[in-house]
Write a structure and sequence with these properties.
Helix content of chain B: under 10%
Distance between the termini of chain B: 72 Å
Largest sheet of chain B: 6 strands, mixed
CATH architecture of the largest domain in chain B: 6 Propeller
CATH architecture of the largest domain in chain A: Up-down Bundle
Shape of chain A: globular
Oligomer: heterodimer
Structural class of chain A: mainly alpha
Number of domains of chain B: 2
Shape of chain B: globular
Radius of gyration of chain A: 21 Å
Strand content of chain B: over 45%
Number of strands of chain A: 0
Low-confidence stretches of chain B: 147-155
Number of helices of chain A: 16
Structural class of chain B: mainly beta
Strand order of the largest sheet of chain B: 15-14-19-18-17-16
Strand content of chain A: under 5%
Mean pLDDT of chain B: 89
Radius of gyration of chain B: 22 Å
């Protein structure tokens, strides 16, 4: 009975696109996307106005905000792995994810209640970061467990697309409120809280905690078995591939900094850089997910990283025209659409069902360590040998990384099919 | 998912839309005067007119009107169409960095000798510093950019510094795109931030500014025409040239904290000495004359002798962003 209903749900949410077969993802995935979208609207509303609120209403230095944000990123990474394992161990992905989203929602309430001290805001940003650390692995595991091998990448594409729509809408909602009610930051905080609770409500009320692929028999995985993932060759090769690829990809923020020095000067253009990339990502996430399911996730993932060569090439020229700039930004958007979500899908396919959250938690942490090291290395190379030379080093590095990663990724998927 | 849950969710959505809508509507309809009626009060006579922006310490609303204080009284004030976070004025050309009433849009406005706005353009971040060269040709603007921090850097904030053609009110250059030389060799790093331009009073093409990278805050000397900057020394933020061009007042960071002492350096030798102000001041200092600094702690304007003698004295209450008005100016 349950099985029949679940597979019916798998094909249900097609109303929002004209072609009925356009999105073949389960209702669970769509609802998780909706949860992320509403939560992102809430977070981005606050993130947009926080600097001006701190500086002009509280008289703080903008420096305080940077310090507040940087402090808690490390904590989130540690929480990620633990939250992943706990949700596998207790078989309670949904409840752990709820805790994470709940953290963010409670943080917003605290902002309304005690938002007029810099320390209070620091605590709220901490809550938000830790909440994000808790929820990411169990949520991605739920997406994976609510999908089949045939629509795994599409599922992650749909989720990431909805997520980025939220990040895009948040600032617009905040601006709209402040245009209607000038300088009423409390109204922004209040509406942000409502969005956070709606996101949580969608998760609690509509997401199925035990999708039909979820393991429900046998003993729950022990810590030893989870740690054993690090000795399982099909997962280790995947981690290695993810590490070498993230080590050799320059972060988007650094690419923007580099590109800004190559274009004709116009201050009005700078904020548009982020917008073009975000729109490209939003538009491409779903089609690329479907492509990955049809032609293979590994080639699409590798193709995504190859997109970075477009931006590297631009950074090696002396001048970039506006047409060239748009090509670079669309390539960057395509890179995002092909990389993070598809990589998680690749992991989902390689991991045993009862260790999805643990494995995804480990993978995200490895990737973020790779990204951090890559940024530090790129910054150091920029100072010592110059931007062009640093880009050459990273371009050669990425080419080598792709050569190393290709057989590793193919192996992780092939053995998954056999296993 | 049961139909009961769907009903609960729909009810919650309706509740939130209504609740949020009512809250925003009430906030929108509430009387909301964004510019305060604060009036700066002269506490001492400065001998020259001083332009300031009004601050109401009891009310943290967004923006302050522009006032000119002379001989112990207010001699001119702007209307509500000119409210600024930061203001500067020279040779008939005013530059006002403001925040729109909504609080989400930042603007730069040029204004004339009757404190009437002329041209406005949008800024890409929070207003921080403003300057106009003494011939009124160039303006300089520093803004803080949020959400631009990148991973792996200790400097989690970032600034942009623009040079503006005052006649057309158009940005013509950005310091981030200038070539930097240190000990004669090209110098670059990913975390470069520039702030606090001060123009040479004798030659508006020349200027000084701060280059922040890592834990260093270099005094740099630049030219608008060549788009080049030269590193002079470390430990100088928000430089400000004296009217005779021989000294630079600046804020000197205490260790790695966000606290500063005001100091003055000799342009010829680059040697510095502290002034008598003992509080931490985060401001780009102005010179009242060749011997006296004028600056704000955010709520009041003070003076202090540049040679390190004497003590800080209150000049104008409820004001910030002080500007010396030259004797030939008509305001």
């Amino acid at each position: 009975m349950y099985q029949v209903e679940a597979s019916k749900a798998l094909l249900k949410p097609r109303l929002w696109l004209r072609r009925p077969e356009a999105l073949r993802v389960s209702r669970n995935v769509f609802m998780l996307g909706l949860t992320s979208m509403l939560t992102d609207v809430s977070s981005e509303m606050v993130a947009t106005i926080l600097p001006i609120y701190l500086v002009f209403s509280l008289g703080a230095s903008p420096l305080a905000l940077g310090a507040i944000d940087g402090t808690y990123r490390g904590a989130a990474a540690v929480v990620q792995v633990a939250a992943g394992f706990v949700s596998d161990r207790w078989r309670r992905h949904k409840q752990v994810a709820e805790t994470g989203y709940g953290f963010s929602a409670l943080g917003k309430v605290a902002l309304v209640a005690a938002g007029n001290s810099v320390g209070g805001i620091g605590a709220i940003v901490a809550f938000d970061r830790i909440g994000k650390g808790i929820r990411t692995a169990p949520r991605d595991a739920l997406i994976s467990l609510s999908s089949t091998r045939d629509n795994l990448a599409t599922s992650f594409g749909v989720h990431r697309a909805l997520d980025s729509v939220g990040a895009f809408l948040g600032p617009l909602v905040a601006f709209g409120i402040l245009l209607a009610a000038p300088a009423r930051f409390d109204a922004v905080f209040f509406v942000s809280t409502l969005f956070a609770f709606l996101g949580l409500a969608v998760l609690v009320l509509t997401v199925q905690g035990k999708p039909w692929r979820a393991p429900r028999e046998g003993t729950p995985p022990s810590f030893r078995r989870a740690a054993g993932l690090l000795r399982e060759s099909r997962f280790v090769v995947l981690l290695l591939a993810a590490l070498v690829l993230s080590l050799t990809s320059v972060s988007d923020a650094l690419i923007y900094v580099g590109l800004q020095r190559k274009i004709d000067f116009d201050p009005a253009v700078f904020p548009l850089l982020y917008v073009v990339t975000a729109v490209a990502f939003m538009a491409l996430a779903i089609p690329i997910g479907r492509l990955a399911d049809r032609v293979g996730r590994v080639p699409v993932l590798l193709g995504g990283f190859a997109m970075l060569f477009v931006d590297y090439a631009a950074l090696l020229t002396n001048h970039v025209s506006y047409v060239g700039l748009i090509v670079c930004l669309v390539a960057l958007g395509a890179f995002f659409a092909c990389s993070e979500g598809v990589l998680t899908a690749v992991a989902g396919a390689a991991l045993p069902d009862d260790l999805q959250a643990s494995g995804i938690g480990i993978l995200i942490t490895v990737v973020s360590i790779g990204n951090l090291l890559s940024s530090l290395a790129f910054g150091a190379l920029w100072v010592t040998i110059g931007l062009q030379q640093a880009v050459v080093v990273f371009a050669v590095g990425l080419a080598v990384a792709l050569l190393i990663a290709t057989p590793l990724l193919v192996r992780s998927q092939r053995s998954a099919l056999n296993g | 998912m049961g139909s009961r849950n769907v009903k609960i969710l729909v009810a919650l959505v309706v509740l939130c839309v209504v609740g949020g809508g009512v809250y925003v509507a009430v906030a929108a309809l509430a009387p909301n005067e964004t510019s305060t009626d604060a009036n700066p009060v002269a506490a001492a006579d400065a001998d020259v007119p001083v332009m300031v922006r009004a601050v109401d310490p009891a009310d943290t609303r967004l923006n302050g009107r522009v006032f000119v204080v002379d001989d112990g009284t207010v001699t001119a004030r702007s209307g509500k169409d000119l409210t600024c976070e930061r203001v500067y004025y020279a040779a008939g050309n005013g530059l006002c960095l403001g925040v729109a009433a909504s609080g989400v849009e930042y603007t730069a406005t040029t204004f004339d000798s009757r404190l009437r706005p002329l041209h406005t353009f949008t800024l890409t971040g929070l207003p921080s510093r403003a300057r106009v060269s003494s011939d009124g040709r160039y303006g300089a603007i520093t803004v803080f950019v949020a959400g631009d921090a990148y991973r792996g850097s200790s400097a989690a904030f970032s600034t942009r510094t623009y040079i503006v053609d005052m006649a057309t009110a158009k940005p013509i250059a950005q310091l981030e795109q200038f070539q930097v030389l240190k000990e004669g060799k090209p110098f670059e790093a990913v975390d470069f931030n520039f702030w606090g331009i001060t123009f040479d009073p004798m030659d508006s093409n020349r200027f000084y500014a701060t280059l922040g990278t890592g834990t260093h805050h270099y005094l740099v000397e630049g030219e608008v025409s060549t788009r080049e900057l030269k590193v002079l020394r470390d430990g100088v933020e928000c430089p400000s040239l004296s009217p005779d061009g021989r000294q630079i007042a600046f804020k000197s960071r205490i260790g790695t904290t966000d606290t500063w002492r005001l100091k003055v350096l000799d342009v010829a030798t680059l040697k510095d000495h502290p002034v008598a102000e003992k509080r931490s001041i985060d401001d780009q200092v102005e010179w009242l004359n060749d011997d006296t600094l004028v600056y704000s702690n955010g709520t009041n304007v003070y003076t202090v002798p540049a040679d390190g003698s004497g003590e800080a004295k209150l000049l104008i209450r409820d004001a910030s962003s002080p500007v010396r008005i030259e004797s030939g100016e008509k305001l």
